[in-house]
Design a protein that fits this description.
This protein is mostly helical and about 160 residues long. It has helices at about 30-45, 60-70, 75-80, 80-85, 95-125, 135-150.
């Protein structure tokens, strides 16, 4: 947009909850801002809540909810979209071996979910300097994919 002096400026427009916090302070558009938005979308996909959901008030945000759940991973199942957790379980009379496979699959799935939440949190840190870069986010997501597909071990996931 040009003003009367001939200088130009950029107006940042974004959807509330997805635009990086620094944009509200007048910072220019940046890759770090895109990474923030990516992190919020990633968290939204895993938690199935929009950053503008009514539950997010009084300092609670999608980022903060994920961060708190990751501190006590027993609560991950409380916030994560249930359809991501449900295993394909057949009849209730599973043999021990089949039940063990289901349990191992469940733990692998939960480790992958935790890892994706960590990536979302790392991308959506308040300060641009604290966010991981997109190359690192993609590298970590590829690792999660490899673990989920069985090409890598769960122990290969880098969960802080």
């Amino acid at each position: 947009m040009r003003d009367q002096t001939g200088s130009s400026s950029t107006v940042v427009k974004g959807t509330v909850g997805y635009a990086a916090p620094e944009y509200g302070l007048g910072s220019p558009i940046s890759t770090e801002g895109d990474i923030y938005s990516f992190g919020i979308v990633l968290l939204e996909l895993m938690i199935r809540k929009r950053p503008t959901d009514a539950m997010f008030d009084n300092g609670l945000s999608l980022h903060k909810l994920a961060e708190m759940a990751l501190l006590d991973q027993d609560h991950l199942t409380d916030i994560v979209d249930a359809t991501l957790i449900e295993a394909e379980i057949g009849p209730n009379n599973l043999s021990y071996r089949a039940a063990r496979r289901v349990e191992v699959e469940y733990h692998k799935r939960m480790a992958c979910i935790a890892s994706i939440l960590h990536i979302g949190v790392a991308c959506s840190m308040k300060s641009p300097n604290d966010r991981i870069n997109m190359d690192e986010a993609v590298r970590r997501l590829k690792l999660v994919k490899d673990v989920q597909l069985g090409a890598r071990a769960v122990s290969d996931l880098q969960i802080p």
